Amino acid sequence: MAGTQDTVADDDALYVLTAVLLTPAQFPSVLGDDYVAACGALALEPYAEGYGLVLGQDGGGARWTVVVDDVSLVAVAIASWDCGMEYDLSPDDRSVVCALPGWPLAVAVAAPGVPAPHDPLPDPGAEGEDPLPLAPPDTETWGPAQRRLGADEIAAQWAAWREQIDDETAFGRPVDHAGDAARTGAADGSEETDGDSTRSGRHPGLRRVLEEARAYVCAPPPPGRIRSAFAPGGARTLRVDGPGWSLVARTDDIAFALLDEEPGEVLPIGRGPELPGLLAALDAMAVRPA
Fold this sequence. Notes:
The chain is α+β, with helices and mostly antiparallel strands. The chain is built from seven helices and eleven strands. It has two domains: about 5-125, no CATH class; about 145-285, no CATH class. It has helices spanning about 35-40, 70-80, 145-155, 160, 165-170, 205-220, 275-285, and strands at about 5-10, 10-20, 50-55, 65-70, 95-100, 185-190, 225-230, 235-240, 245-250, 255-260, 265-270.
């Protein structure tokens, strides 16, 4: 999935390694809790049409992120690569919005025949005012970026996470009232809890997540805070973020929460009587991929 484009650093060819979309419905969660915040992290205007981010190396091996406004072109390239097909992604010069040093995401491959990936040298003409190179978050620490990346992983590997949950052991309830809490406890998705769920239904962080998610129904958050994607069986996978928390849910099942104040913890939320309606309401207002 490599191509070349003469847009970066003194007309050096850009050897394309990968690309991602930056739109209200699909954006690298590592950049922010919503589309506006993600654009802000790259000093971009949050245009409704969105952008494509093309990650590659120049002829000297330096990392560059080229921002283009031809979203369709980048989407076709990503879809082709996902299907195992070759696609030469070569954006037209007129579609290039800017070129940013570094990569905001970890890239496991490198362009052949050029030096190993490294940050570009500072531009002498910028007199120290050129932007710092983009870099992926430190995986050894826990914070908002790592929390969102964890939620992305759960959404991508839902079945593997879901099969770890023993509903009856966690709540002493039928399967549709599911929950387990990794190491810190689980919560029921209802306002009131009973039986085994009372042990963790009082978890202040999880109650805050549910309360703030409910508040979104009355006061819609910025675009991208609530995203909906395809799930098997006619369901939808929801990704919902807020200040200090991330939620992953299936509209026909339970939810998982991650909190800034609970490093590395994955906290399932049982379905209960309230969660189905909340998920349906959030899905109705979510942005969806085109």
